Amino acid sequence: MQPLKALVPVRLKKAIKRLVAPRQPSRSVSLYTYRKPDGTFDLDRYREVQIAGNKRKLDWVFADEDTIRFISSYLRNSSKMPVRGLCHGTRRGLEQQWFADHLGAEMIGTEISDTADQFPRTVQWDFHEPRAEWEGRFDFVYTNSHDHAYDPEKALNTWVDQLAPGGCVIIEHTSEHTAGHSNELDPFGADPDVLPYLILQWGKGRYAATEVLIPPFTKPSGHSIWLFVVRRVDV
Question: What global pTM score does this model have?
Answer without folding.
Answer: 0.87
